[in-house]
Design goal:
EC number (chain B): 2.7.13.3
Protein name (chain B): histidine kinase
Number of helices of chain B: 10
Number of helices of chain A: 9
Distance between the termini of chain A: 17 Å
InterPro entries (chain B): HATPase_C_sf (IPR036890), HATPase_dom (IPR003594), His_kinase_dom (IPR005467), HisK_dim/P_dom (IPR003661), HisK_dim/P_sf (IPR036097), Sig_transdc_His_kin-like_C (IPR004358)
Oligomer: heterodimer
Organism (chain B): Roseicella aerolata
Shape of chain A: globular
Radius of gyration of chain A: 20 Å
Catalytic activity (chain B): ATP + protein L-histidine = ADP + protein N-phospho-L-histidine
Radius of gyration of chain B: 37 Å
Strand order of the largest sheet of chain B: 3-2-1-6-5-4
Shape of chain B: elongated
CATH architecture of one domain in chain B: 2-Layer Sandwich
């Protein structure tokens, strides 16, 4: 059995007690906790220990949490997922080496998971997104996930996940690694083979340019598009200069998208891998992406966030999940929601998290968190890190 | 012309492609801008709605079962949730002005609750941005939450202030601006309004409880008074009648002397009772006006102990005074404080067996205050009876009261007098193990004697 609970309080001890009261049973075998980033992580961990005893706790900071009872991104939310039954409780594998080398750490994690995960098993990957705050550098999910795949091997796997943030401003992030509060860590939770996941990836971006080729790129830094400074190209599109603080606002409006499959096939939101723009760099004429998985020669389009598209996508995705799990006995609905989709940031007239919460079959125990990046199976293939998406997964027993 | 028809077609297709690319990019750019304008408009509208939402949600606190002190944190939670900032705090101006105490803080700066900050000439509204020079009052205000971007409002008449802070000006934490005055002042005024309302409710409840207590005390008073007055009056009347010239008893000279002594005892008891009643009645109606002065603690204790020593000798009870720091001074009303101490020592002596000792001592408290302790090893009382002992006319052991005297007003009077000093009276007791009475004085009434 899996139970979920949500609470909001500025005192983490009170939030934990409120959450504990909302759980179906008192003594879980494992806890997954998503803790608002304004909470003191050590105080939150101590409160969890005091209420639940020595039960291992995984998860970490979240820009906000989403539950049936409420949702928000004030930083005082707490979402708990409690696993009470060994038949549904995941095994955990942890690496604390992200700062040294994200790819190598991911590979180590993947290799260790390979030892316990079977073909098609469900694995939830969580890690702290922010590597360094000044200047801001993220732990690139693409490096971690590529490394994970390299370490795990070619067997099929349902890899899901999210980057953990303390807030929408990318101020920090931390991880509950089972025992303690740590940074620069990734946790892989390997679910028992008897479970399978149904996943819908909700998007919200639309191409607003012709294809352009990345002609110069270093890591996550895109210098040129079609031989012209990338920033000039984007500024021209937006019709405004992006120097100074405005560089950060790019995150709010545009992404670069790579279309998978036939580039001239009709628009399909599921065909795009979007990369958020972390900042504009007027000195170099470049833009820094959240991830570094684009390369020289990658053909991209400038994508506009489209709030109505986002909301339509959510409605469709939830409807699809409800259709797929109808008549089964779902164990858990987990929503990994890009923090930027919250209406305070996206400007959407409706909170899309509310659409998920209200639209998902009420029989499904549901919990979500606001993340920095999402990881999900992409185009029936390997899982990839995704930006500006909502990943809704329902766990159920294999039929 | 060397161009072939195929070449011309390719050229036309290339031009057409370029045209469509250009149109696609132009239309895309317009779409992007429209989308962004729409989002921006919505974000602006959201900010406007924030004020209304905050006020609506905050007023719900008025219906909750909160004390005025307790509404601070939920109020800040609502403010942070709606304003999406990194930290927030409520402050209250201390007497004298320009110094504020942080009464509540959440988010970044939680640890500053209880801290005091100096803000010379506090502005009624202020905010900082990346362009604000770090000079007063920006310097002081950004130091409160230790965040660079702050929004501040101060309500001069009530002395309450609210500050919000952000780490950055980008993304959701946009720069603060003059338009935010509505948000911060709205939030602060709602907080003050609810708090005053809660305070009024609390005062009302407290007044009601006091009225009920007074009513119960009056009922007890009437019942007790009847008994307390009748017994000595009966004795006076009875013995006076027996000694009257036309009395049929015709007492002997020796009996007359005994009766006179009994009449005198009863009259003295009545006088003591009347004094106690007057004193208590006065204290019940209003806090006594004290005339406090700084006095050497050792001297106050020693003189009061000496006063009680006579009664101790009569009952065979020794009163011991512990060591008191010579430089320690108490800011007390000398008459009233000695009255309290005398009452406690008198009680301790009264309830101690022959040959026992009563210990009087003084110790400094961790908070800078002081505790005067009067400890006896007498009959003691059950812990559950202690609250009753602090109420008027509540002699726990009526039989002992008869034999030992006292109308049950000493402890209630002592309690009221100590409350008037800003202190409190605590009792710790167990049957057969004696009673410890503790007088706690706050830090502002205790000091080391200033050096000349």
């Amino acid at each position: 059995m899996i139970s979920v609970s949500y609470a909001k309080h500025s005192d983490p001890a009170v939030a934990v007690r409120l959450c504990a009261a909302g759980l179906a049973q008192a003594a879980p075998q494992l806890l997954l906790a998503f803790c608002g980033g304004k909470h003191d992580p050590l105080a939150a961990r101590a409160a969890l220990r005091e209420v639940f005893g020595p039960v291992p706790v995984f998860g970490g900071s979240a820009a906000g949490a989403i539950g049936r009872a409420g949702f928000g991104y004030s930083g005082f939310e707490l979402g708990l997922i409690a696993f009470h039954d060994p038949a549904v409780t995941p095994q955990a594998v942890v690496t604390r080496d992200l700062l040294r080398d994200e790819h190598a750490a991911g590979a180590g994690l993947g290799a260790e998971v390979a030892g316990i995960a079977g073909e098609g098993d469900v694995v939830l990957l969580l890690f702290d997104s922010v590597a360094v705050t000044a200047p801001l550098r993220l732990h690139p999910a693409s490096a971690i996930v590529d490394g994970f795949h390299a370490g795990f091997g070619a067997r099929p796997l349902c890899l899901l996940g999210g980057g953990l943030l303390t807030d929408m401003n990318l101020s920090g992030g931390w991880v509950f690694d089972g025992e303690a509060v740590v940074k620069h860590a990734a946790v892989a939770l390997v679910f028992p083979p008897a479970l399978q996941a149904e996943t819908a990836v909700m998007h919200g971006c639309r191409p607003v340019s012709a294809f352009m080729e990345i002609t110069r790129i270093e890591g996550a830094e895109v210098y040129e598009l079609d031989g012209r400074p990338a920033l000039t190209v984007i500024e021209r599109m937006l019709g405004l200069p992006l120097g100074g603080a405005k560089g950060h606002e790019l995150t709010l409006c545009a992404t670069l998208g790579e279309k998978q499959g036939d580039p001239f096939a009709p628009y399909d939101e599921n065909a795009y891998v979007n990369r958020l723009i972390l900042r504009a760099n007027p000195e170099t004429g470049s833009v820094t992406l959240f991830e570094k998985d684009f390369a020289r020669g990658t053909r991209v389009q400038i994508m506009s966030r489209d709030n109505s598209l986002m909301l339509d996508s959510v409605r469709r995705g939830v409807q699809e999940i409800n259709r797929v799990v109808a008549g089964t006995a779902p164990l858990l609905g987990l929503y990994i929601d890009c923090a930027g989709r919250g209406s305070a940031r996206s400007g959407a007239p409706v909170e899309e998290a509310a659409l998920v919460r209200d639209g998902l079959d009420p029989a499904v125990p549901f919990l979500g968190f606001y993340s920095g990046v999402e990881v999900a199976p992409f185009a029936q293939g390997r899982s990839r890190p995704l930006d500006w998406t909502g990943v809704l997964t329902v766990l159920r027993r294999r039929g | 012309m060397s161009e072939t028809p195929q070449g011309a077609l390719i050229g036309q297709l290339e031009r057409e492609l370029a045209y469509y690319r250009r149109e696609c990019n132009d239309l895309g750019a317009r779409l992007l801008r429209l989308q962004e304008e729409q989002s921006q408009t919505f974000r602006e509208a959201r900010r406007s709605r924030t004020v209304a939402k905050l006020i609506r949600e905050a007023y719900r606190l008025a219906d909750g079962d909160w004390t005025p002190q307790e509404i601070g944190v939920p109020m800040l939670e609502m403010i942070i949730e709606n304003a999406l900032c990194d930290g927030a705090a409520l402050l209250h101006e201390e007497a004298g002005g320009e110094r504020f105490r942080v009464t509540h803080a959440i988010g970044a700066g939680t640890e500053i609750t209880g801290h005091r900050v100096a803000i010379p000439s506090p502005p009624e509204f202020f905010f900082t941005t990346a362009r604000t020079p770090i000079e007063p009052p920006a310097y002081e205000l950004t130091g409160i939450l230790r965040l660079p971007y702050v929004l501040w409002a101060y309500d001069r008449p009530t002395g309450h202030a609210l500050i919000l802070g952000s780490r950055s000006e980008s993304n959701v934490s946009r720069p603060f601006e003059p338009g935010d005055q509505e948000l911060i002042e709205g939030a602060l005024s709602v907080y003050i309004d609810i708090m005053l309302r809660k305070q009024a409710e609390l005062d009302l409840r407290s007044a009601k409880a006091a009225a009920e207590r007074a009513s119960a005390a009056r009922a007890r008073f009437l019942a007790t008074l009847t008994h307390e007055l009748r017994s000595p009056l009966n004795a006076i009347l009875g013995f006076a009648e027996m000694m009257a010239p036309e009395s049929r008893y015709n007492p002997s000279l020796e009996d007359r002397g005994r009766y006179s002594a009994l009449i005198l005892d009863a009259a003295q008891y009545l006088l003591k009772l009347a004094d106690g009643l007057l004193d208590y009645s006065h204290l019940e109606q209003a806090l006594p006006s004290l005339a406090p002065e700084w006095l050497p603690a050792g001297q106050v204790l020693a003189s009061t102990v000496a006063l009680g020593a006579g009664e101790g000798q009569v009952r065979g009870v020794e009163i011991r005074l512990g060591l008191v720091e010579p430089a320690l001074e108490l800011c007390i009303d000398p008459v009233r404080f000695r009255q309290v101490l005398h009452n406690l020592i008198g009680n301790a002596v009264k309830f101690s067996p022959d040959g026992a000792a009563v210990e009087v001592s003084l110790a400094r408290a961790e908070d800078g205050g002081a505790t005067v302790t009067v400890r006896d090893n007498g009959v003691g009382m059950r812990p559950e009876d202690i609250p009753r002992a602090l109420e008027p006319f509540q002699q726990l052991d009526q039989q002992a009261a008869r034999s030992l005297g006292g109308a049950g007003l000493g402890l209630p009077i002592a309690k009221r007098l100590l409350e008037a000093h800003g202190g409190e009276l605590l009792l710790d007791s167990a049957p057969g193990h004696g009673t410890t009475a503790m007088i706690r004085l706050p830090a502002e009434r205790v000091r080391e004697r200033p050096q000349d």
